Amino acid sequence: MTSTVDSFAELGLSESLLKTLSEIGYETPSPIQAQCIPILLDGHDILGMAQTGTGKTAAFALPLMETIDIKVSKPQALILTPTRELAIQVAEALQSYAKNLPGFHVLPIYGGQSYTIQLKQLARGAHVIVGTPGRVMDHLERKTLNLDHLKTLVLDEADEMLRMGFIDDVEWILEHTPEQHQTALFSATMPEQIRRVAQKYLVEPREIKIKAATATVAAIRQVYWQVSGMHKLDALTRILEVEDDFDAAIIFVRTKTATVELADKLNARGYAAAALNGDLNQQMRERVIDQLKSGALDIVIATDVAARGIDVPRVSHVVNYDIPYDTEAYVHRIGRTGRAGRTGNAILFVAPREIRMLRTIERATRQPIAPLTLPSRADVTNKRVADFKAKVAEVLDAEGLDFFANIVSQLCEEKDVSAEEVAAALAMMAQEGKPLQIAGEDPAPRPFREDRGDDRRPASFGDRERKPRFEDRGERPRFEDRGERSERPRFEDRPPRSERPARPAPAGDMVRYRIDVGREHGVEVRDIVGAIANEAGIESRFIGRIGLYEESSTVELPAGMPAEAANALKRTRVRGVPINLRPDEGRPGGGFSGERKFKKKPFADR
């Protein structure tokens, strides 16, 4: 199998998966996908050397999906990852690949999350478990995770698990898996301990070595913005507005649907924007590119596949609105700017859990990517005022103002006002539709939290003397024997709720809505408030009473909510579950007191 495969259809995947990949926007397999997928589909074990960012998640996830029997709600695949962030990322990728596989369920389990939540989800059943070694080991010891139906085991970033001190846990897990299963081990490097694990637990593995794509992009200024405190769309428009050398931009998103939605929102805000995706025929695609070249369009929102081959010298900015899945895609994306000897600008939006991918991109491009400070309201106002002054100055230099000067003189005489007051009134009229000042407050930036290992172990854990495993040190201590965890006051020491300051109720008429997340999903009030505030742009002080129930929740929102905000909330996810916002037509039994209710956790889970 060579790495020059033109399409996923050549790799032996099912029609259902091929349809999903097309909808996501995947077209050409990366080298590691081209080599690993056929081998795994044939049932062989794999020992792969590949960096993060080469596309290896799809390389093992797609063949894994082909082996899943949806009718059996038991763990049929186990993926071990070194960190909780990577576990969540892999689980999300699997869920996206299962778009056309109804009933599929993947469950991430990791340290730091309540056992109660995980026990409920495990009892409900999952086809694939993605977890960190420590927490997977704990569930196997408690017998709350059963691997009798295991078909596939994946060790992702094995060298990182070794560095973080998890290799003993990994071997313990391997010893407690059924004898008959397929194993795939991926590691960026191959230290002796990893090689020894592979020789002991893999059966005649096929070895695959992939080099990560590297590139030097010295002519392109690369910056990133931390996604926090403001909706990405609002941040995007602020950034585009204050960039001095902005001429035209290509904005990259992951899905075809997102290209259309973002183009519509930017057009509504006064930008000349259009979508470019795989659903466009060749004639329509060429028309969009010609408009971008001519200046009829300033912004194109594209998927990776649709943007290939675009060569428009006036593209001054590339915005990675959605972070790419691998470094090759990033290099191809930013290569759309800085052409024909010009300098270019690449802006990357990075959510906290995507910080690992940011660091991988920095290594691949061999350049640090500097943080971008989001333009403040004052910055945007100053830029708008400067542009307004420039336009006025341009008109002042023109001829033929006598007629209008006469009108101003008449107004001054009729209204007994100064010329400055008339000019101010005209300026106010001219800014309608795009105010020179923007309202609201600037959110406070939050620092990134770098990836941490399972159960908050230090990065140098592997260099310390390791404590013996549970079977070597006797019975596991009961909770009451573990000692004090912190100086934090107990609930009984806190003032009763009636004595705490009340949160002011939002003013105005409120409408109660129902959403499809509740206690069984591990949701908390703050999750709901944060999702609504971020996705619909509704400040938390305008969000009313929230009631939490087992399978759903209710939330009060201001009456007359714009359709755009309501539609955004229908698609919003909380804890990975679509909330499906809709007017509430009745109360379920139990528990709604008319106040925001916080789920009380067992003391052992606090």
UniProtKB/TrEMBL annotation:
Region of interest (Disordered), ranges: 434-511, 579-606
Cellular-component GO terms for this entry: cytosol; ribosome
Location of the motif Q motif: 6-34
Start-end of Basic and acidic residues biased regions: 443-502
Enzyme Commission code(s) on record: 3.6.4.13
Reaction(s) catalysed by this chain's protein: ATP + H2O = ADP + phosphate + H(+)
Ribosomal protein as UniProt keyword: no
Comp. bias regions, Basic residues: 597-606
InterPro entries, per the entry: CsdA_RRM, DbpA/CsdA_RNA-bd_dom, DEAD/DEAH_box_helicase_dom, DEAD/DEAH_RhlB, DEAD_box_RNA_helicases, DeaD_dimer, DEAD_helicase_DeaD, Helicase_ATP-bd
EC supergroup of this enzyme: hydrolase
Tagged with keyword Metal-binding: no
Xref: Pfam families: DbpA, DEAD, DeaD_dimer, Helicase_C
Superkingdom to which the source organism belongs: Bacteria
Localization terms from the record: Cytoplasm
Domain DEAD-box RNA helicase Q: 6-34
Transmembrane segment boundaries: none
Entries under SUPFAM superfamilies matching the protein: P-loop containing nucleoside triphosphate hydrolases
Residue span, Helicase C-terminal domain: 235-380
Domain Helicase ATP-binding: 37-208
GO function terms (MF aspect): ATP binding; ATP hydrolysis activity; RNA helicase activity; RNA strand annealing activity
GO terms classed as biological process: cellular response to cold; ribosomal large subunit assembly; RNA catabolic process
Biological role stated in the UniProt entry: DEAD-box RNA helicase involved in various cellular processes at low temperature, including ribosome biogenesis, mRNA degradation and translation initiation.
Entry's family note: Belongs to the DEAD box helicase family. DeaD/CsdA subfamily.
PANTHER family registered for this protein in UniProt: ATP-DEPENDENT RNA HELICASE DEAD, DEAD-BOX ATP-DEPENDENT RNA HELICASE 47, MITOCHONDRIAL
Protein name, per record: ATP-dependent RNA helicase DeaD
Gene this protein is translated from: deaD
